[in-house]
Amino acid sequence: RSQVMTYHDALMSQLRALISVVRTLRERLADVEKGVVLALKVPHLCLRKQNIEILLKKLNVIHTLHQTQPTIQVLLSRQEFSGALDLISTSQDILKDDVANIVALRHLPSQLEQLMQVIGRMLLSDFKRIVNTELSADTSIVSGQQFENVLQSPPPTDTNDGALTANGHSYGKEDELPLDEFALSSLVSGLIRQESYSFLEHFEETAINAVKRTIKDVVLEKLDLTEEKTLTSLVAEFAVVASSEDWTELLDLLVGSLIIVLRKMKMIHGTIISSIQTKQTSDSVIHETENVTVVRLRQTSDEVMINICDQVHERLGKLVNVRTRPNAVKLVTPKELSTLQSLINILSKVTSDICGRTSAGLQLSHQGQTIQFIQQFHEASRNKVANLLEKEKWKRHFCKADDLTKLSEPLLNLVTQPTQSQHSSDDSNGNLQELRISGCEESFAFVDSVVRYLGTVSTYLDLLTNLPTSACQEVALKLCDLLKLFNSRTCQLVLGAGAVSLAGLKTITIRNLAITLRSLEFVATLIPLIRSYFMDLFPGLTAKQYTTIEKSFDNTVKDYNDHLGELERKIHVIVDAALQAQLATWARKPPVPSNSFKSIGKQLAKLHEAIQDIVPASRVTKLFQSIHNQFLKRVADSLKAANLKPDNSPSHGLVVSELIFYRENLKYMNVLNPEDLHDSKLQTVWSL
Question: What is the rounded distance in angstroms from the CA atom of residue 351 to the CA atom of residue 317?
Fold first, then answer.
């Protein structure tokens, strides 16, 4: 029993120790358990935190999206259309990428899309309203001449890389533009942001309508509309009755009023370009390259302005064409054409500064009108010259010195009164018998039509100072045609003997031929001087124009020279035929001188008498030398035919006597040089 108790006590002692160990172990395990559990909760708590943050972000996004529509309304009320569109675009991106599966927001994308469409319509409507208000204002009717200073001023510079200012050419206070550039810029930026480019079409359409309305208002202000008519018919009726002053006044007002409208369009276009440039710059910063669409939009905008400027020129060109109709062009004057060219230059400078390109419609119409005027003027001049020549008696004419003073200054400087020469240059009444050309030693006898013809030529030179420079070539060609007409018609009347039937002449005499020769020589000598005047007056001619004018004058001079040669040959032929007819009856028998050589002497005396006061002495000598040589050849032929030789026979002596008589006649007239009348020269009849 005691042993059992001893074992019991030992067992209890061990149990207590074991309990103590177990307690200690459990305490330590409890401590370990606490640390492990907390460590295991850290990832879970971190994940939970992330989920909560995501949820909070989503809730914030949802809250922001909930505030989108009120914010958009605020931006629209401030006309911050680009901001509103950016907000809508951003919201749409968020809905698509961040909260795509939120059921509560499923209707918001369609609402934003509808709102964007509404804003687009608002933007376009407001743009139309501003443009319509600006371009539909009452027409300011002003003179185009007041803008003449634009021809001396440099082209206006752009500001802000394309935003054209209204100060490109200063406005008077009455023309200040009330354009709200900020509002318009905001609208355009919004439309560009929304990729709605139809506003350019509306701008172009409105601008063209404004041009039409301006033209209509000016025409109705100037003309009285008594019955229902179209604008074109009203202007057409005015064109056939209006004086040059009234017509140019109408065009002056049209140009001035259209310039005012164009400058308003320039302000609008400048604002559009500025907005496009801003968009282009921002896209370049974001994408590091220019946005192709924006670049094309800039080009389209420029094309719109070009189209508008072209419309202005074309519509004015149509009005100018009305003045070109047959009944109207008769009223056109050179001064009218010159004034119209000045107005065209002003308008072209303004439109070129606006759109960067020259519009040609109005200029082409004016060139057509100028050519039409020149053609009509030329036809009238041709008829006048033709009538002058048909009435010409082809006799020497005297004119008053005052008749030359009626010529235009350029021609008056070329045609001068001759100094006293071997022929009397004026008679007791102060009438001029000869004319002289500056720089030319010869004086020229002339027929009546020459002086009047100079008056007609003078009007062509006057045209050069009054017509536009572009008409220089046309005037030069027409003047050459007039010069050729004088030459060819003279040829027909004198060489072709047309004057016999038209002017009542019995026949065309040598004196008629001689005075015609000198008259044409006078004009032919004048032609190169007129050509030089053309070239000096217009040093800026193109190479093609210069060549064309030069060739035309050269051909004219050639025609004159050909005709002058024909006249000289005609005189020679007539004299030669007369002398040959006398030689044909020469019997080479006594008495000496024979009747044939007496008649030959008389023929030569008549020839000398006919031309000695018309043709210069040197030319008379040259003519008689030619006749003398030809006569000796004819005598030689006659001697050969009669088989006569210098054999000192009676027949030989008779021939020598006849020739001596012939020589004495020529000596008396003093028309040949001594060597031409030497015995050795006369003896050539036996050897020719």
Answer: 15
